[in-house]
Automatic annotation (TrEMBL):
Annotated binding of ATP, by residue: 432-439
EC identifiers of the protein: 3.4.21.-
NCBIfam families from the UniProt entry: lon (TIGR00763)
Descriptive protein name: Lon protease homolog
Enzyme class label: hydrolase
Bias kind Low complexity: ranges: 656-671
Active site residues of this protein: 809, 852
Residues in Lon N-terminal domain copies: 18-273
Entry's family note: Belongs to the peptidase S16 family.
Lon proteolytic domain residues: 714-904
Highest taxon above the source species: Eukaryota
Region (Disordered): 656-684
Gene3D superfamilies documented for this protein: 1.10.8.60, 1.20.5.5270, 1.20.58.1480, 3.30.230.10, LON domain-like, P-loop containing nucleotide triphosphate hydrolases
Record organism: Micromonas pusilla (strain CCMP1545)
Length: 917
């Protein structure tokens, strides 16, 4: 603003002519103020005229503000910031005063000019080159003082001037002289009817202002104004403050009778009060009910609606998303009952905000339902065709070496499935030591059945919720492993392997085995209800298989539901064959040691970049692994591959750089070579020699020459070779017995389970006479009678204390060790034994004979004493090479064992030799 002038003087009455400011779309009421920014030529001329007057007469301080009729030409009226006005020049130049008058209303407001400020035209650039006299503006602050009737226009240029007739009193200013009385309209403050109406109006207005007080700061000011204003001003004051609509204001402006005005204002204030009361009540109620999240939701919805209105379309995004989810849900085609529940949840979701805690939970649940294979099945529902039985066998043979009996059993299983496709197949459980191919056999079955394969690992599962899921109310709850597996596999009829079923435990968090019972029970599993899902899923189309290392630890009821198939451990020869045919190619491929295709060196695809000859594998089998399966062997071969990889990778680099000299061209530089120099065969291909095996794997881990007990046990009474079965397969184990100072007790050491401890007690109490009634000479009575137990105890130790041992099959070995101890005769060094012993000296059959005999064979044992009833297993299970290498002696009683355990036989009556301490 370049200048500012304060114009201030009080007039006594309105002059008969007034300069007129036509105003479009807005109405200035008496008793209210208005700011106008004037930019049109006529308005500028009007203000110029006021300012240019040498003597400012009181009458010139007024302008007449007259509303423009709605039907005036649209071009009429120049809009400026914060104000709109009619530009008199915008009327057709030909129009005479009467035409211009016709566009204006009959009643206007005489306004006192409170302030005039000069400025640039809004939107003008400060340094405009083409300045025009109109590139400027005036800002007027006007105060409405009284109504006037607009008569003829006396001039239309350069601005409008009109003859006017004052309608209201001019003497009171609502802003300065609130207590004044208006006179000239013939109304007095004590006019009875107006006074009553004013009182009632004030009461309502007060109540209204109270209701609005907390929203509008101005309401408080208005309240005091209403209290003090004379009755005939009340209506104007109120409408100016509360009514924004042009029509309502125009109506009041046009109502010249003060009583009529008051009547209208009274109706208005009552209506406003009613609306405000209802509004306040509703708001109160709604606010009471709305939680913070709901309020957020409401606001978000409004925001979404606004965005939609603006065409930003983001509001539709979430809806689209939920629509997609619904489509996915319908696509999954769950049973009607499940669909109904899911749809209900979806409806709930639509009413929630994304920030609500329940939103994620509900959405996660619906997504899980939508991604489960409720009706999707594997592409081929194979009931193995007659011709494909041979194919099935071929697949099994191709992927697994040996295991003929296991494969036979699998083929039988497949054949029954073909003949009775509708029957529920038995659940096969492959039991055996680790790394013997149980998992891969299950995979082969899936391949034969052409079904997707899914492995569910149950090792270490202690919580029922792992199987059956957590209820949705838990934080971070999710479905159990079964449902998760189904979600991953994507069909409802996969082959599902329950791996390591025996490693499932149970604790305070429930019994997962019980849940597993339901999964495997054909009577129940068609409606398996996961806690998280809360709706049943039909598991009956799944082909379940299971694996276990030690089936004894599978709970009885679960074991009864399955058919156990033993996958025995391998002999060294079998391991060698498996390694050469399956494991070596596999590890070479995994380490990038097969040529991918024709390369610069002209190698064919899949020719190895590393050769691992049979003697190297054999060395690994014999000296670096002691296991029933081939997992440790595989790990050793992988170590060898890694050691060679550096050299081969370097060779590749060199070949790429064009400096290679065939395969055997360049050796890695010293920095890369590490500690191993990789030898090459005659054709230049790197080769794993036995020396390299020793260099990479270190000293032999299982060198039998280091075993002192094995070397010397033939000389020591009380030390006997037993054959045991552990989770890693068969093993040869020396049991040592000695007499120690003590109180006549039996002491056992070597990480033993309960069953083996019982066997030791039985061995102690065993009737030395082989169960004959006439002899009561048990070992214990013998020891006591001989005075050997006086002040002494027997100590039996099973070496390799780090390995847990349990089971009854050490019974005969412990008896023999005690007899050897007390008879002071060493047992035969070439003989090992296994068998459970009864209290009366009978030798009972045991498990794991195949692994035990293999272990005996591998450890250079020549004779084995086994329970007579296990002979049949030997014929079925034990490889011919092992059978032929061993002298197998069946035993019925302990007498038979002792007869064969000592050089030159053994007579049953216990000798009274002192045992060596
Ligand atoms: N008879 C076999 N023929 C070919 N490969 C075999 C044979 N037995 C085992 N393997 C190989 O040994 C590896 C280990 O087998 P797998 O994982 O199936 O053992 P597992 O018995 O399931 O062991 P775990 O009890 O620890 O799960 C696999 O790579 C598999 O190919």
């Amino acid at each position: 603003m370049s200048s500012r002038e304060q114009v201030d003087a009080e007039p006594r009455g309105l002059p008969s002519t007034l300069s007129i400011l036509p105003l479009k779309d807005r109405i200035l009421l008496p008793s209210s103020a208005m700011k106008l920014v004037l930019t049109t030529p006529s308005a500028l001329a009007l203000v110029d005229d006021i300012l240019g007057a040498a003597y400012v007469k009181p009458g010139t301080l007024y302008v007449g503000v007259v509303p423009v009729r709605r039907d005036a030409p649209p071009s009429a009226g120049g809009v400026t910031s914060g104000a709109s006005q009619l530009d008199a020049e915008s009327f057709d130049a030909e129009d005479d005063a009467d035409d211009v008058r016709a566009h204006l209303h009959d009643v206007g407001t005489a306004a006192r000019i409170i302030q005039i400020a000069r400025g640039d035209r809004p939107g003008m650039k400060a340094r405009s080159i083409h300045w025009s006299p109109y590139d400027r503006s005036y800002t007027l602050l006007l105060e409405g003082r009284c109504r006037f009737e607009l008569n003829q226009l006396s001039s239309t240029s350069p601005f409008l001037v009109a003859h006017v007739r004052q309608l209201d009193s001019l003497s009171t200013s609502p802003f300065r002289d609130l207590g004044g009385n208006g006179r000239d309209d013939g109304v007095t403050a004590d006019d009875g009817e107006l006074g009553d109406m004013a009182a009632s109006f004030k009461e309502n207005a007060r109540a209204l202002v109270d209701k609005l007080e907390h929203r509008k700061g101005a309401a408080r000011r208005l309240k005091s104004m209403l209290e003090q204003a004379p009755p005939h001003r009340l209506a104007d004051l109120f409408v100016a403050a509360f009514e924004d609509s042009f029509d309502a204001r125009l109506e009041l402006l046009s109502t010249t009778c003060p009583k009529e005005r008051m009547r209208r204002a009274l109706a208005l204030v009552e209506a406003q009060l009613h609306a405000a009361t209802v509004n306040a009540d509703v708001t109160k109620k709604v606010e009471g009910r709305l939680t913070k999240t709901q309020r957020e939701y409401l606001l978000r919805q409004q925001m979404a609606a606004i965005r939609e209105e603006l065409g930003e379309g983001e509001g539709a995004g979430e809806e689209d998303d939920l629509e997609k989810l619904r489509a996915k849900l319908l696509d999954a085609a769950p049973p009607a009952e499940v669909l109904k529940t899911a749809e209900a949840e979806l409806r709930k979701l639509r009413k929630m905000t994304e920030q609500a805690p329940a939103y994620g939970v509900t959405r996660g649940w619906i997504e899980t339902v939508a991604s489960l294979p409720w009706s999707k099945e594997a592409a081929t529902d194979v009931t193995v065709e007659a011709s494909s039985m041979a194919d099935a066998r071929a697949v099994l043979d191709e992927e697994h070496y040996g295991l003929d009996r296991v494969k036979d059993r699998i083929i039988e299983y497949l054949a029954v499935r073909r003949l009775r496709p509708d029957a529920r197949p038995p659940i096969l459980c492959f039991q055996g030591p680790p790394g013997v191919g149980k998992t891969t056999l299950a995979r082969s079955i899936a391949k034969v059945l052409q079904r997707p394969f899914q492995r569910i690992s149950l090792g270490g599962v202690r919580d029922e919720a792992d199987v059956r899921g957590h209820r949705r109310t838990y934080i971070a709850s999710m479905p159990g492993r079964l449902i998760q597996g189904l979600k991953r596999v994507g069909v409802r009829d996969p082959v599902m392997l329950l791996d390591e079923l025996d490693k499932m435990g149970s604790d305070s968090r429930g019994d997962p085995a019980a849940a597993m019972l339901e999964v495997l029970d054909p009577e129940q599993n068609h409606a398996f209800t996961d806690h998280y899902m809360g709706v049943p899923f039909d598991l009956s189309r799944i082909t379940f298989l299971a694996t276990a290392n030690d089936p004894r630890t599978i709970p009885g009821p679960l074991r009864d539901r399955m058919e156990m198939i033993t996958v025995p451990g391998y002999t060294d020869e079998e391991k060698l064959a498996i390694a050469c045919r399956h494991v070596v190619p596999k590890v070479l491929e995994e380490h990038g040691l097969l040529h991918a295709g024709r390369e610069g060196n002209n190698r064919d695809a899949n020719t190895p970049r590393l050769r691992i000859p049979r003697d190297a594998v054999e060395l690994v089998v014999r000296s670096y692994t002691r296991e029933a399966g081939v997992r440790g062997l595989q790990r050793c071969l992988e170590s060898l591959c890694r050691a060679v990889a550096v050299s081969v990778a370097h060779e590749s680099d060199a070949a790429a750089a064009g400096s290679a000299n065939g395969d055997g061209g360049s050796s890695p530089p010293a920095a890369l070579q590490g500690t191993h120099v990789i030898p090459r065969g005659a054709d230049g291909v790197p080769e794993v020699t036995t020396e390299l095996v020793r260099a990479v794997l270190g000293p032999a881990r299982f060198d039998s020459n280091n075993d002192d007990l094995k070397d010397h046990h033939g000389d020591i009474p009380g030390v006997v070779a037993g054959l045991s079965w552990t989770a890693v397969g068969g093993d040869l184990m020396y049991i040592e017995a000695a007499v120690m100072p003590g109180g006549g007790t039996l002491q056992l050491t070597g990480q033993l389970g309960d069953v083996i401890k019982e066997s030791a007690l039985i061995a102690m109490s065993w009737h030395g006479a082989g169960g004959k009634a006439e002899s009561s000479a048990t070992i214990k009575t013998h020891l006591a009678g001989d005075g050997l137990l006086r002040g002494r105890s027997v100590h039996v130790h099973l070496p390799q204390g780090a390995i847990p041992k349990d089971g009854p099959s050490a019974g005969v070995t412990m008896c023999t060790a005690l007899v050897s101890l007390f008879s002071d005769r060493p047992a035969r060094s070439d003989t090992a034994m296994t068998g459970e012993v009864s209290l009366r000296g009978l030798v009972l059959p045991v498990g794991g004979v195949k692994e035990k005999l293999i272990a005996a064979h591998q450890n250079g044992i020549r004779r084995v004493l086994i329970p007579a009833r296990n002979v049949v297993d030997v014929e079925h299970e034990v490889p011919a090479a092992t059978r032929e290498a061993l002298e197998i002696v069946p035993c019925v009683t302990m007498a038979d064992v002792l007869e064969n355990a000592f050089e030159g036989g053994y007579r049953i009556d216990l000798p009274r030799h002192r045992a060596r301490m």
